[in-house]
Design brief:
It is a single chain. The chain is mostly helical and 292 residues long. The chain contains 14 helices and no strands. It has helices at residues 3-8, 19-22, 27-42, 47-69, 76-81, 89-104, 108-111, 115-127, 167-183, 189-203, 210-224, 235-242, 244-256, 259-289. Helix 8 crosses helix 11 (210-224), helix 10 (189-203) runs antiparallel to helix 11 and helix 10 (189-203) crosses helix 14 (259-289).
Length: 292
């Protein structure tokens, strides 16, 4: 599949709810840069014969990166070798990230019909079997219910310190996000993915693992749009490489809602995808040399 052709068919049309974001100064350049980077890795000769191996390795590295952003920064080889992910809080976070990446590819068709069903499923996959009360798993939090990104562990940082929207606001904004996603097929994938990611981080709609769910939803948009159909461009790797401080600073731009702030967030997400492309390109080169 030509990713250029696929994403070109998603050029913004007047009337799309996110068309204004797609037109912000700097955003079209970021969209174009991401598309070219993705096309380059898809054109690598290894992708013709061993794309499944690249996909599997990208999923592992994406899970490692997403867990790091949620406060569990394990070495890649530790993630690769471990088999027990239920023994303590950090291990449960890594296990949740791995399960989410395995599940995301199964939810693409459902996302196109009901994003809220997918978000509920993602949280169920992340939190199920981790000791979290069953009645809170797979549904938005109710009034007064607490939120912890990593249950059983203290995760410090700017994202953990943000005020929580109340349950009524969460319900209303989730419904709005769903309608927005279903109405914006003509907006470039990077823009939609960045907004989905940012809005879920802002809402923290579940009692746990909201960052993991937000990044898995970003992945679903990028894959389901046709931009990255084989899921080999792990934005989570790039977000982790750019660092939690830069992630939080860019997210402040999203929260501001200003044109400059939204541009900063979308372009940050674009840079994360490009770094994910670089990671998978290195995997392709290693496979070609017989080193992986």
């Amino acid at each position: 599949m030509s990713t250029t052709a696929s994403d070109a068919s998603s050029a913004p049309r007047p009337g799309d709810p996110l068309v204004a974001l797609a037109s912000l100064l700097g955003v079209p350049d970021a969209v174009d840069s991401v598309r070219k980077a993705v096309d380059r890795v898809y054109g690598h000769r290894v992708m013709r014969r061993r794309s499944n191996e690249v996909t599997s390795e990208a999923a592992l590295r994406a899970a490692r990166g997403s867990a790091a952003l949620s406060g569990t920064d394990w070495a890649l080889e530790e993630v690769r070798r471990r088999s027990d992910f239920g023994s303590e809080a950090e291990a449960r976070t890594v296990g949740a990230a791995l399960r989410l990446n395995a599940e995301a590819g199964q939810l693409l068709s459902v996302w196109a019909q009901s994003p809220l069903r997918v978000l509920a499923r993602l949280h169920l996959v992340a939190a199920g079997g981790t000791g979290i009360p069953d009645e809170t798993v797979g549904r938005p939090r109710l009034a007064g219910e607490p939120v912890a990104e990593t249950p059983g562990a203290e995760v410090a940082g700017p994202l953990a310190e943000l005020p929580l929207p109340d349950a009524d606001e969460v319900a209303g904004r989730l419904d709005g996000l769903s309608r927005l996603v279903l109405a914006t097929s003509a907006v470039p994938a990077l823009v939609t993915a960045a907004v989905v990611h940012g809005e879920l981080l802002a809402l923290r709609p579940f009692g746990s693992y909201n960052g993991l769910v937000a990044r898995a939803a970003e992945r679903i948009v990028l894959v389901g749009s046709g931009l990255d159909p084989k899921s080999i461009c792990p934005a989570e790797v790039g977000h982790a490489e750019l660092g939690r401080a830069a992630y939080a600073a860019a997210f402040d731009g999203y929260l501001s809602g200003t044109p400059d702030g939204m541009t900063a967030w979308i372009t940050h997400c674009g840079r994360a995808v490009e770094l994910g492309v670089r990671e998978s390109t290195a995997v392709c080169e290693a496979l070609q040399r017989g080193a992986a």
